[in-house]
Design goal:
Largest sheet of chain A: 4 strands, parallel
Strand content of chain B: 15-25%
Shape of chain A: elongated
Largest interface: A-B, 14 and 15 residues
Strand content of chain A: 15-25%
Structural class of chain B: alpha/beta
Number of helices of chain B: 4
Strand order of the largest sheet of chain A: 3-2-4-5
Number of strands of chain A: 7
Oligomer: heterodimer
Helix content of chain A: 25-40%
Order of helices and strands of chain B: EHEHEHEH
Helix content of chain B: 40-55%
Order of helices and strands of chain A: EHEHHEHEHEEEHHH
Largest sheet of chain B: 4 strands, parallel
Amino acid sequence: MIVAEAKPLEELLACLEESRRALIVSCSGCTAVCLTGGAAQATSLASRLKIAKRINGSDLDVETAFLLRQCEPELLPAIADRCARADVLISLACGVGVQQLAEAYPDKWVIPALNTTFAGSYAGEGVWEERCGLCGNCVLHLTGGVCPVTRCAKGLLNGPCGGPADGRCEVDPEVPCAWILIYERLQAQGRLELFTQVRPAKDWRSARDGGLRRFSREGMSRE
Amino acid sequence: MLFEPRIIGFCCFNCAYSAADLAGSMRLAYAPAVRIVGVPCTGAVEDAVILAAFEEGADGVFVAGCLEGECHYRSGNIRARQRVQRLRRALQEMGLDGERLAMYNLSAAMGSRFAELANEFSRRIRLLGPSPVRKGGGGA
C-alpha cells in the first residue's frame, strides 16, 4: 500500500487564504488504512480548517466527499456536483489520487493535504514502514524476501557493508541491517549459496530515470 | 472578564458518568457550565467528535475515563489519553489554547473527585476566557 502523512495545517491554511468554499475529498484506499486520508480524517480536517479560519476572522465553508478510491477515474464523476460548488478541492489521497482528481476537474485548484511518502506496509500498531522502492526490477527471490533496495540504507546488492553493529544499521541503530536479515533468512532456508554469489550492477533503467513509466498489459490494452 | 463558560464533558458510562451521578446523589454542587455527554468508552470518542464540540463553540472539553488499567475494553482510556495529547497540539495549530482540552481518569466511586475536577476545569476555562471560535456568544 501507499503510505502518506498529513501536511501541517499551516501549509494548507496558507493555500486557502482566498477560498470561500472548499471540498475535502477522502480516499478509502491506502491512505484510509494508514489513518491519514479516510472519511474520519476528512471530517476532522474539515473541523480543523473551519475552526482555524473562524479564529482568523474569515469563514470557510467546507464540505466533505468520501470516495472509495481516488485513483480510479471511473469513481470520480460521482462527486461532480459537489466539486462544481467548491472553489478549491483538498485531496486526502496519495499523489496518484490527487492527479486523478485534478485530471477529472481540470478547472479546479487541487491541494494535496498529504505528503505521499512510500510504498510500505504495517509494522506494528500505528506504524508503517517502507518495503518497496518500485525499482521495476525485483530481486526479492534472491534475497530471502528482504528488499535491499529499500531496506539497506545504501541500497547495496552485495551486502552487508562494514557498518552494521549488533545486527543494526550504522545509519540508524533502531533499524536492522537488511543484509544481516537476508543472511539469516537464507541461512534458515539452507540457501546461503545465494548470499555468496556476487551480483552484477543492477539495471536501473526500469527505475525512475527514464521518464514516465507506463505499463500496457498484452491482450487487454488497445494500444 | 466574567462569562459563563460552556464545557462539554465526554464521560465513560462505566466510571466518570457514574461518578457524576454519584456526585449528584451526594448533593455535591459542581460547576453548572459542565454538560455531560455519556459515552460507552472514552476510546470511542473520536477526533471529529471533540473537534465538533469546539467548532460549535464549546469553551472547553474534557474526556473522563476509567482509571488507567481499569478500562472495561482494556485500553480505550489509554487511546483516549494519546488522542487528547495529540488534539491538544492540534488545537494550538488552529489557534486555540491546548489547555481547553483535558483528560481525567476516575472510578465510579469518585463522586467528590468528579465535582472537584469539574470545578477545577471550569475555573481554568473561566481564566482562559471565551473560545475565539464563538461568535457573539450564540450557539453551543
